[in-house]
UniProtKB/TrEMBL annotation, chain A:
Family from the record: Belongs to the TRAPP small subunits family. BET3 subfamily.
Cell compartments where the protein resides: Endoplasmic reticulum; Golgi apparatus, cis-Golgi network
Keyword Transport: yes
Main localization (coarse): endoplasmic reticulum
Official protein name in the record: Trafficking protein particle complex subunit
Subunit structure: Part of the multisubunit TRAPP (transport protein particle) complex.
UniProtKB/TrEMBL annotation, chain B:
Family: Belongs to the TRAPP small subunits family. BET3 subfamily.
GO BP, sorted A to Z: Golgi vesicle transport
Subunit structure of this chain's protein: Homodimer.
A GO term from the CC aspect: TRAPP complex
Protein's name according to its UniProt entry: Trafficking protein particle complex subunit
Pfam families hit by this protein: TRAPP
Stored CDD domains: TRAPPC3_bet3 (cd14942)
Source organism of the structure: Thalictrum thalictroides (Rue-anemone)
Keywords (A to Z) from UniProt: Endoplasmic reticulum, ER-Golgi transport, Golgi apparatus, Transport
Function noted in UniProt: May play a role in vesicular transport from endoplasmic reticulum to Golgi.
Protein's cellular compartments: Endoplasmic reticulum; Golgi apparatus, cis-Golgi network
């Protein structure tokens, strides 16, 4: 028929060739979709902690898939096995693919050995979000934290990942810091590997 | 004479900020999975996706009008064309072809040439009744309602359900006359 779609049919999804990941959609399309995700989840919870947990879960689902996709496409089916390797994979590769840029910084926590921080001056998911006063410390970055946790967990680095606003001097908007606290076993394994 | 509406959204799409389509696709997937877990019934999920799309549509139309340089469409045929060539392009980076007009010119089909929502997706047996892309029909319905057109938008072909294309049926139910003067202070 006239004007039939060009899209090809495949017997199942794994037969379909993997895209190169260069396709784009408008930022507004993503922002509007993300806003619906947040609004919907607001109707499902009684408190901020629960809302953040649900956004984190949604992010986790994204992160787990991103890890699989990137390892397959960009790394010849290999993944990082060392702590610093996986952290820089998240900070550089994952960030670049998802948010179009490398994250602003990756630092080691000064007080605790098991803590690392990825900071972003203006995190994509927080760009069009202003948190109402009555919602306290709520941070939509929980979604990005979930992505990070999904990637790390999938790669065998279980961690607790949280998102926080950190005020920056001389700037109107705070930056978002994603705090990664690795599970004990990860550090033990890392120490053994030397 | 009013300037001719652009026949393609390429220029607009090139000028707006963009994000990787995979982030969009996977985020949408996460939303659908959340809905399936929460609502359990596939029918309810279809409804919720449509509602989310509607919410997006009524906001998105403002940006569309502000950035697309499209002037008022003379008839529904032009409207459908603008959605297919400018609207879809501007937001999703894809286009559609408009076909299968009925004799009155009030309903037609949009056949998507590409669909960024469905990458990596396969419907399991338990979700056969799901209209995975139902958010999109909601968006179009919502956006058109804001420019005085009540429409019904439904999926007639869906490749995730084994069809050979993604086809949306657009039906104009009625043109709502604009009310004037607007009561600003109510």
């Amino acid at each position: 028929m006239i004007g039939a779609g060009k899209a090809k049919q495949y017997a199942n999804v794994v037969e379909k060739p993997l895209s190169k990941g260069k396709q784009e959609v408008s930022l507004s399309a993503f922002a509007l979709l993300f806003s619906e995700l947040v609004q919907y989840n607001q109707t499902q919870v009684d408190n901020i902690a629960e809302l953040e947990r649900r956004l984190e879960d949604a992010g986790y689902a994204v992160g787990a898939r991103v890890l699989e996709l990137l390892c397959h496409r960009d790394k010849g089916n290999r993944r990082e096995t060392r702590l610093l390797g996986i952290l820089s994979f998240v900070h550089s590769t994952v960030w670049k693919v998802l948010f179009g840029k490398v994250a602003d910084s990756l630092e080691k926590g000064t007080e605790h050995e098991d803590e690392y921080m990825i900071s972003e001056k203006e995190l994509l998911v927080n760009r069009f979000i202003s948190v109402p006063k009555d919602m306290g410390t709520f941070n939509c970055g929980a979604f990005a934290a979930g992505i990070v946790r999904g990637v790390l967990d999938g790669a065998g680095f279980p961690a607790v990942v949280t998102a926080h606003f950190v005020p920056v001097e001389g700037q109107l908007r705070p930056r978002t810091t994603i705090l990664i606290k690795f599970a004990e076993e990860v550090l033990r394994r890392e120490a053994k590997l030397g | 004479m009013a300037p001719l509406a652009p026949r393609s959204g390429d220029a607009v799409f090139a000028n707006v900020e963009r994000v990787n389509a995979e982030l969009f696709t996977l985020t949408y997937g996460a939303i659908v999975r959340q809905l399936l877990t929460d609502l359990e019934e596939v029918e309810e999920v279809n409804k919720q996706l449509d509602q989310m799309g509607y919410n997006i549509g009524i906001r998105l139309i403002d940006e569309f009008l502000a950035k697309s340089n499209v002037s008022r469409c003379v008839d529904f045929k032009e409207t459908a064309d603008v959605i297919a060539k400018v609207g879809l392009k501007m937001f999703l980076g894809v286009t559609a072809s408009v076909t299968n007009w009925d004799v009155d010119g009030t309903s037609c089909s949009l056949v998507l040439e590409d669909n960024p929502l469905v990458d990596f997706v396969e419907l399991p047996d338990t979700c056969q009744g799901l209209y995975y892309c139902n958010i999109l029909s909601g968006v179009i319905r919502g956006a058109l309602e804001m420019v005085s057109m009540k429409t019904e938008v439904t999926w007639v072909r869906d490749m995730l359900r084994g069809d050979d294309a993604y086809e949306l049926r657009l039906k104009l139910l009625k043109q709502v006359p604009e009310e004037y003067p607007y009561k600003d202070d109510e």
